């Protein structure tokens, strides 16, 4: 009796010593493989097991790392091997049921599935003990020990192993998290280094602390030189000081502007700069992404050149054609006028349409750049509507459409760029004619609305779907389908820019299949 108590005492003391050893070992490393190998070896050696395995599971219960101990040697199986152990062995049962298992004779327990490679075939019978590892209630792994002898493991072994599992659960989880953090860090570093945009990290004074490969390529500066510079030196002197953006950056906003990058030994590079606050460790830093916009700038210049070309090289000859046609008409002999007049009208109208299109294209550029309307003069809304109808009625007649006018009497004059607003009206009427089928009806009208003058162009054409009512005013936005013949998608964009530049508003009211009513209002003063 006394010797049994003594033996029990020895077991308890050696168990405590083992647990102490294990907790020391666990604290010594954060490397997942090292932690696994130590826990497994200490457990197998101290319990006297022949073999053992320790599998680490992620949040979804999938194996991410494992160690196998066979005769004092540790191996790390592949993911497929781990998967197979989990699917076909006792460890899988324990992981699934989240409870320990003690098997006295593996031949008589169905939780033990024999695999073709199982040493049981060679050694005959054996026993096993297997426990789940938890950390804050979450399953983080499974520890299994095997012995060649049946009935080798006792409930004391199970209690001891459970103690080891309790200690190891947290350590394994920490090592796993540490590995995940390291991997995330490596991925971030790769993304940072391999980014096609230059990325730099600075302090709040703009002093460069880190720069990726592309930053070194684009600035033509080696890393050592960059680390001695500040962003202030890299950007053109006209760039606003960083302090101007402090508040926005502190509030977590991304600051964004265009500037030029000064480069050693080559010309300045136009870039778009995005600055954002990032936490590096415990300290708030600034991340700068510089995007090369030289191609876009070249295209802008090309577009400006093209606009200038259109302005000078197309507009003036077109004006010449129109005035020559005018003169030619007056020179026609009376008897020929009747037969030739319709041909003349076609030529004049076509030339005028071309002229309107060119003017609107140029206006889009100018208005987008924020240029104000300068040549305003007073005009009666009646006159504007009459001129617009005059320019479009032949087109409506060619589709046998009815083009009517609804004007309120005594409308006050408005002060506008007459040519521009006339083109807005013509655009809307031409659209109505284009999109309304043959024999449709179009009404152009104007009336006073408080301190505004309201204009409208209403048709009984195909109408516009609700979700496109706003979108059609965007540049190049067109509705698809047979009901909508081809166009550039610039007309309504021009109308909106022109009306807004006059302090007005434009919109459309429409229902599919019921026609459209394009409305714009302009302030009287
Ligand atoms: P475009 O007529 O060259 O395509 P717009 O900017 O003038 O360009 O018009 C944009 C789109 O709005 C048109 O493609 C058409 O789908 C739709 N739209 C414009 N006016 C009407 C209308 N009166 N009825 C139906 N759809 C219209």
Number of strands: 18
Alpha-carbon distance between the termini? 113 Å
Largest sheet, if any?
6 strands, antiparallel
- Assign the structural class, choosing from mainly alpha, mainly beta, alpha/beta, alpha+beta, or little secondary structure: alpha+beta
Percentage of β-strand residues: 15-25%
Mean pLDDT: 88
Poorly predicted ranges (pLDDT <50, ≥5 residues)? Answer: none
- State the oligomer: single chain
Radius of gyration: 41 Å
What's the helical proportion of residues?
40-55%
What is the approximate shape?
elongated
Strand order of the largest sheet: 3-2-1-6-5-4
Q: State the helix count.
A: 15
Hetero ligands: adenosine-5'-diphosphate
Give me a quick take on this structure.
This protein is α+β, with helices and mostly antiparallel strands. The protein has helices at residues 2-27, 32-47, 79-88, 90-97, 120-123, 155-194, 213-219, 223-226, 231-234, 246-250, 294-331, 334-368, 381-398, 418-435, 491-501, and strands at residues 51-57, 63-70, 73-75, 101-103, 127-135, 138-147, 199-202, 208-211, 255-263, 266-280, 283-292, 377-379, 402-407, 414-416, 441-449, 452-459, 505-510, 516-523.
Write the layout of secondary structure elements.
Blueprint: H1 2-27, H2 32-47, E1 51-57, E2 63-70, E3 73-75, H3 79-88, H4 90-97, E4 101-103, H5 120-123, E5 127-135, E6 138-147, H6 155-194, E7 199-202, E8 208-211, H7 213-219, H8 223-226, H9 231-234, H10 246-250, E9 255-263, E10 266-280, E11 283-292, H11 294-331, H12 334-368, E12 377-379, H13 381-398, E13 402-407, E14 414-416, H14 418-435, E15 441-449, E16 452-459, H15 491-501, E17 505-510, E18 516-523
Parallel strand pairs: 13-15
Antiparallel strand pairs: 1-2, 1-6, 2-3, 4-5, 5-6, 7-8, 7-11, 9-10, 10-11, 12-14, 15-16, 16-18, 17-18
The structure holds adenosine-5'-diphosphate.
Residues 431-432, 435, 459, 461-462, 464, 472, 478-479, 484, 487-493, 516 line the site of adenosine-5'-diphosphate.
């Amino acid at each position: 009796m006394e010797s049994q108590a003594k033996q029990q005492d020895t077991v308890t003391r050696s168990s405590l010593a083992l647990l102490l050893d294990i907790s020391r070992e666990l604290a010594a490393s954060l490397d997942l493989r090292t932690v696994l190998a130590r826990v497994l070896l200490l457990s197998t050696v101290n319990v006297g097991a022949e073999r053992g395995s320790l599998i680490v599971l992620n949040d979804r219960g999938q194996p991410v790392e494992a160690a196998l101990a066979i005769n004092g040697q540790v191996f790390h199986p592949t993911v497929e091997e781990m998967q197979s152990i989990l699917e076909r062995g006792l460890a899988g049962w324990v992981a699934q049921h989240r409870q320990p298992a003690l098997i006295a004779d593996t031949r008589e327990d169905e939780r033990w599935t024999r695999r073709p490679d199982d040493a049981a075939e060679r050694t005959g019978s054996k026993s096993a003990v297997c426990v789940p590892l938890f950390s804050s209630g979450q399953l983080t792994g499974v520890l299994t020990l095997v012995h060649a002898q049946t009935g080798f493991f006792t409930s004391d072994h199970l209690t001891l192993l459970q103690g080891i599992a309790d200690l190891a659960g947290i350590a394994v989880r920490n090592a796993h998290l540490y590995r995940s953090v390291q991997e995330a860090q490596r991925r971030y570093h790769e993304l940072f280094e391999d980014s096609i945009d230059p990325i730099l990290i600075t302090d709040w004074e703009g002093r460069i602390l880190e720069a990726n490969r592309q930053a070194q390529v684009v600035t033509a500066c080696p890393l050592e030189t960059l680390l001695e510079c500040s962003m202030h030196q890299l950007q053109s002197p006209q760039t606003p000081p960083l302090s101007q953006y402090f508040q926005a950056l502190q509030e977590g906003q991304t600051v964004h502007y265009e500037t030029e990058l000064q480069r050693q030994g080559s010309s300045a590079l136009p870039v778009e700069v995005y600055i954002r606050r990032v936490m590096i460790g415990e300290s708030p830093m600034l991340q700068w992404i510089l995007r090369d916009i030289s191609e876009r700038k070249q295209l802008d210049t090309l577009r400006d050149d093209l606009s200038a070309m259109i302005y000078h090289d197309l507009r003036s000859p077109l004006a010449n054609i129109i005035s020559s046609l005018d003169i030619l008409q007056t020179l026609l002999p009376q008897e020929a006028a009747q037969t030739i007049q319709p041909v003349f009208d076609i030529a004049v109208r076509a030339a005028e349409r071309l002229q309107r299109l060119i003017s609107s294209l140029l206006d889009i550029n100018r208005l987008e750049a924020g240029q104000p309307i300068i040549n305003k003069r007073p005009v009666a809304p009646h006159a504007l509507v009459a001129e617009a109808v005059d320019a479009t009625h032949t087109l409506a007649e060619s589709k046998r459409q009815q083009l009517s006018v609804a004007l309120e009497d005594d409308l006050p004059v408005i002060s506008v760029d007459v040519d521009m607003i006339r083109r807005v009206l013509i655009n809307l009427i031409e659209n109505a004619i284009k999109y309304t089928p043959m024999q449709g009806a179009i009404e152009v009208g104007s009336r006073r609305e408080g301190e505004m003058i309201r204009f409208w162009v209403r048709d009984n054409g195909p109408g516009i779907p609700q979700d496109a009512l706003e979108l059609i005013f965007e540049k190049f936005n067109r509705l698809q389908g047979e009901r909508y013949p081809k166009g550039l998608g610039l007309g309504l964009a021009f109308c909106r820019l022109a009306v807004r530049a006059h302090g007005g508003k434009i919109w459309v009211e429409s229902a599919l299949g019921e026609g459209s009513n394009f409305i714009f209002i302009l302030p009287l003063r």
